Structure to design on (1131 residues):
């Protein structure tokens, strides 16, 4: 563990730590473009020059390519290093279009940030700039402005080193070279948008986010990606205050959140594009048949139907399907109601999805749901002799199951046209849903549910890691978290228990489960060890 | 898909054998491709990438980086005129002027009949014999306008050389 | 007279490129002796160190010391790369060796490989060297057929393959780590050091990279012995040096000199002075990246330290002579155009700075310059100098500083106000 001094402050770092990371441990940012902790060091931007004093000898060198050593004295800001970096910045801006007002990266751009520190305040360039491709689609999800590119090669290295296919290249020679894709071959790997996060400037931009919002209006909320069972740590970027475009749209983008144990700096494009459902086709008012009613009326009717169903058909005549996109808190309260209180047997979470991810070597698993492991851990599932999902659906279709409760399922997506027919064969259907799909339209009772982004909770990933997501938005309309819907229904059906909030549910469910018990609900989480700032996705 | 001739393919496979890593043969194979097809097209890049099992992006990074690889078909006689210091001191610009006046082309251009193309080039490492130029793979030195006129005339008179590119003649033509 | 014939001794014989003729003049004798006498590799390295042979490509690093950096116990193969990517404007001495005495260089290669324990040598030759390629490939073929290269050489059990690898037109590949990337099949982008090539070089293996002329000196060290060889030069800089002189001199060409001869002697006594009775204006003494010397600054010994003390460098030993008719701003523009063309594009200051300086130099020649442009270029040069991955940034910065500081009046004269 070498101990060194950076800008007059002592710091101890593990062997092999470079000077950028060592400085970050002290909260000192060494300006850089090409360095990224997840990629190989190339030292090409030359921005991270610092003064290094070792054994009585001073020299100016790169912070990225030099490792901390015992007794080393590092000065980030000396007149020489500031001039050197100012020089780099001037060279980079030389051919840059300086078009910040029309650039989506404004506010997240290193050129902007570093200009504030090293500002030149006088343009010395009076010779023509290069012209390179602009508004150029390099792939289905990413757009390029090569004039803004600083040729740091982070995107090239990401494709090469992390994904494993060199889909971008820097072609040409010298100052005429251009970062671009090969003609006819697109940047289309399932992690392609990570190059947008990596791009330190506005050269590579996400098509989906293009001209949607100024980034400084976005609120960044820590969340967990619900699009496969990896549980990648993400930020949801939301804005509920500016309605100048696409009224009703609240979630604008997903950014990866560093977690060394789960996803490092990356997320899949699937996860990044998986937020549209939050603001599309939502339902916000409870219904009985086609009629909008109050929660009391709807829950009362649902309780009546269940009670009558149990009396007429017995527990064998009722089935429940809950998608494991629900949180541990939802699953736990649902189990208490459905299995413990009502003693239902045909209860399952192993529901199919029409949106199957393709597993790969990097992050994506083949499980479309984020919390299957949590449902297992919490004992949610069929009782002895209870049927699994496929049989429950079959039994519903041939009339053996007469009352069906579904929550957050994608039966319409899986069954297609047959979903509507299924509803018609049943005695009744109770639908807990966020979307106004075919089942919702045909439900005897419709109970609108808040999505994960609208309440806090926990998911357990496929490796058993329990991770918390925060509430980013207020629930749509009058929708409520799933656990609360189950709780209120349970109270109508005679339960005596009640939880105040998600945290109380989690506290109860984690009893005696070490993997759960260790999660500190209030802690800043997901940052992992090391000198990393938790709130940092822009390296 | 562009195919190498059998002979070139054999040469390529022998070249690959010489190196500890296949990628090392990218430049040698691009040289072969240029010899066979006259220039480096996208198809040629794809053919090289396929033979070497490397990403075509890497092949283009290489073909785009090195100045000897033609991105467009050059003329049958490609004139590369050194315009670096010693050649400039001794008249390189007058050589380029002659080409502009008599062939009507500037650096990067080809005559309409496809016979001549011209390119400015950097030091050829024969400054003692300046000004110098290459015509395809032949080095010509101590150039004067008259000497260049004779060289060009001689090539005009020659019957069209055998396809595809007249670089098989490895006799030294240095003067 | 400081001229001497050692490396260049046999350049005068057109048949020296043929193996039989070369053998008759003593080629390959030292190689055969090394094998016959089973001279220990370590002894050869010590001999080369003691001879004070320095890298002749421009940097002047002690050759034996470089060899000594190669790990002895590496399980990986080791490689030798001969740097025959001669491209520094003004330099043409390696071409002279490659075209006139290929066996001398090959013998040096063989002895070097034996000393360091290498069985594969690559001769990385610039792509435009069509004639040197033909000569060298023929020489390798003949030497292999004669059992001087190849498998089990002279029954010694030592194997050595020599492979000519042609570049494809990129000055930067003369930088040793760019050369390695180019050899591996990639763009010639220089690598960060450390690791140094002696430890992690070609294909991730320990690699010695030596200039053609350096290789050609090795057989002479073995023949003369370290002490004799060293005495031909200076205390720190043993042996001889090939100088390539061009531009406005009566007899441009390659001349071999003892280390420490003066630049003035080279120009006037050896190369015949300036033709047509014209006066000297300036000399670019070590390839285009060396800062220019004014006419009254040329009485300086041709060796690494003395040239550095004079504010310039020996570099590759390429001397370009400029007479009184020369426009310095034009020569500067040509120089800047070269570096702007050849900057590899990897790191910021060189990629953008060379082009910027070139554009300003063109603007000045077109009559649109302002006096402030000189300060701007000097500041840009300062922002480039010593701050880039490889020395190409400095190679633009140093001549910029040299031309602008020594001949500011010539630039100012082109400005209207």
């Amino acid at each position: 563990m070498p101990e060194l001094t950076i800008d007059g402050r002592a710091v101890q770092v593990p062997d092999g730590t470079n000077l950028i990371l060592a400085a970050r441990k002290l909260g000192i940012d060494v300006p850089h473009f090409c360095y990224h902790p997840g990629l190989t060091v190339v030292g090409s931007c030359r921005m991270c020059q610092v003064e290094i004093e070792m054994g009585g000898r001073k020299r100016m060198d790169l912070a990225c390519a030099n490792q901390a050593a015992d007794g080393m004295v590092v000065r980030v800001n000396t007149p020489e290093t500031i001039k050197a970096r100012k020089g780099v910045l001037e060279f980079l801006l030389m051919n840059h279009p300086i078009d910040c007002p029309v650039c989506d990266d404004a506010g997240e751009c290193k050129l902007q940030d570093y200009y504030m520190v090293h500002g030149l305040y006088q343009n010395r360039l009076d010779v023509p700039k290069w012209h390179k491709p602009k508004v150029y689609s390099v792939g289905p999800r990413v757009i390029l402005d090569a004039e803004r590119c600083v040729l740091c090669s982070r995107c090239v290295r990401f494709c090469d080193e992390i994904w494993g296919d060199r889909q971008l290249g820097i072609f040409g020679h010298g100052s005429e070279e251009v970062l671009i894709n090969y003609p006819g071959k697109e940047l289309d790997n399932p992690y392609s948008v990570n190059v947008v996060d990596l791009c330190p400037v506005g050269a590579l931009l996400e098509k989906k986010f293009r001209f949607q919002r100024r980034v400084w209006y976005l609120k960044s909320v820590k969340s967990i990606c619900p699009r496969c069972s990896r549980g990648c740590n993400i930020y949801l970027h939301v804005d509920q205050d500016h309605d100048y475009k696409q009224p009703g749209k609240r979630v604008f983008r997903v950014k990866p959140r560093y977690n060394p144990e789960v996803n490092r700096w990356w997320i899949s494009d699937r996860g990044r594009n998986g937020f549209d459902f939050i603001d599309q086709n939502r339902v916000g008012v409870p219904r009985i048949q086609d009629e909008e009613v109050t929660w009391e009326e709807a829950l009362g009717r649902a309780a009546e139907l269940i009670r009558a169903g149990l009396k007429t058909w017995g527990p064998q005549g009722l089935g429940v399907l809950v998608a494991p996109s629900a949180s541990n808190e939802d699953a736990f309260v649902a189990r208490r109601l459905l299995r413990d209180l009502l003693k239902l047997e045909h209860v399952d979470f192993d529901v199919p999805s029409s949106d199957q991810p393709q597993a790969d070597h990097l992050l994506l698993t083949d499980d479309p749901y984020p919390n299957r492991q949590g449902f297992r851990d919490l004992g949610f599932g069929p009782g002895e002799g209870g049927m699994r999902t496929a049989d429950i659906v079959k039994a519903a279709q041939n009339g053996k199951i007469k009352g069906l409760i579904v929550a957050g399922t994608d039966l319409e997506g899986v069954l297609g046209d047959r979903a509507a027919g299924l509803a018609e064969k049943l005695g009744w259907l109770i639908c807990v849903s966020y979307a106004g799909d075919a089942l919702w339209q045909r439900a005897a009772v419709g109970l609108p549910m808040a999505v994960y982004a609208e309440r806090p909770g926990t998911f357990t990933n496929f490796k058993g890691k329990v991770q918390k997501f925060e509430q980013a938005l207020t629930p749509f309309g009058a929708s409520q978290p799933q656990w609360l819907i189950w709780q209120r229904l349970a109270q109508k059906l005679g339960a005596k228990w009640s939880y105040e909030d998600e945290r109380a549910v989690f506290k109860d469910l984690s009893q005696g489960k070490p993997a759960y018990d260790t999660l500190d609900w209030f802690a800043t989480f997901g940052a992992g060890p090391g000198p990393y700032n938790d709130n940092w996705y822009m390296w | 898909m562009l195919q190498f001739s059998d002979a070139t393919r054999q040469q390529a496979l022998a070249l690959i054998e010489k190196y500890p890593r296949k990628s090392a043969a990218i430049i040698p194979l691009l040289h072969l491709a240029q010899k066979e097809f006259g220039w480096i097209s996208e198809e040629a890049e794809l053919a090289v990438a396929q033979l070497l099992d490397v990403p075509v992006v890497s092949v283009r990074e290489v073909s785009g980086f090195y100045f000897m690889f033609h991105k467009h078909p050059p003329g049958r006689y490609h004139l590369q005129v050194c315009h670096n210091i010693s050649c400039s001191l001794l008249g390189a610009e007058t050589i380029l002027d002659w080409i502009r006046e008599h062939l009507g082309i500037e650096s990067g251009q080809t005559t309409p009949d496809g016979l001549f193309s011209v390119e400015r080039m950097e030091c050829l490492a024969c400054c003692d014999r300046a000004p110098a130029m290459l015509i395809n793979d032949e080095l010509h030195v101590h150039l004067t306008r008259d000497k260049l006129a004779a060289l060009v005339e001689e090539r005009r008179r020659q019957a069209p050389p055998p396809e595809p590119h007249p670089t098989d003649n490895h006799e030294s033509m240095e003067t | 007279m400081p001229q001497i014939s050692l490396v260049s001794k046999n350049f005068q014989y057109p048949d020296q490129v043929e193996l039989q003729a070369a053998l008759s003049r003593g080629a390959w004798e030292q190689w055969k002796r090394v094998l016959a006498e089973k001279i220990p590799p370590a002894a050869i390295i010590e001999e080369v160190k003691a001879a004070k042979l320095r890298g002749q490509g421009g940097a002047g690093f002690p050759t034996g010391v470089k060899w000594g950096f190669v790990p002895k116990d590496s399980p990986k193969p080791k490689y030798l790369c001969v740097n025959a990517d001669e491209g520094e404007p003004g330099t043409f001495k390696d071409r002279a060796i490659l075209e006139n005495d290929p066996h001398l260089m090959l013998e040096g290669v063989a002895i070097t490989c034996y000393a360091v324990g290498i069985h594969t040598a690559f001769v990385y030759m610039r792509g435009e060297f069509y004639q040197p390629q033909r000569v060298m490939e023929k020489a390798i073929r003949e030497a292999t057929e004669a059992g001087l290269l190849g498998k089990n050489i002279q029954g010694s059990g030592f194997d050595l393959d020599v492979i000519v690898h042609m570049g494809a037109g990129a000055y930067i590949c003369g930088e040793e780590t760019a050369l390695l990337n180019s050899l591996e099949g990639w763009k010639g982008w220089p690598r960060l050091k450390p690791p140094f090539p002696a430890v992690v070089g070609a294909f991730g293996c320990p690699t010695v990279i030596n200039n053609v002329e350096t290789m050609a000196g090795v057989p002479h060290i073995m023949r003369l012995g370290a002490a004799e060889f060293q005495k031909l030069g200076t205390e720190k800089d043993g042996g001889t040096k090939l100088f390539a002189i061009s531009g406005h001199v009566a007899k441009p060409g390659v001349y071999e000199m003892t280390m420490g001869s003066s630049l003035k002697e080279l120009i006037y006594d050896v190369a015949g002075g300036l033709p047509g009775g014209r006066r000297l204006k300036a000399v670019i003494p070590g390839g285009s990246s060396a800062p220019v010397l004014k006419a009254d600054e040329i009485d300086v010994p041709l060796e690494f330290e003395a040239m550095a003390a004079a504010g310039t460098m020996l570099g590759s030993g390429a001397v370009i002579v400029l007479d009184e008719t020369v426009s310095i701003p034009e020569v500067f523009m040509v120089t800047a155009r070269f570096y702007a063309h050849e900057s590899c594009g990897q790191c910021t200051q060189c990629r953008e700075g060379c082009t910027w300086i070139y554009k300003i130099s063109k603007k000045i020649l077109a009559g649109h310059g302002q006096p402030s442009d000189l300060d701007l270029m000097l500041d840009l040069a300062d922002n480039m100098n010593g701050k880039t991955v490889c020395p190409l940034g400095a190679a633009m910065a140093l001549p910029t500083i040299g031309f602008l500081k020594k001949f500011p009046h010539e630039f100012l004269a082109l400005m209207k106000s």
Q: What stands out?
A: Residues 525-535 of chain A have pLDDT under 50 and may be disordered.
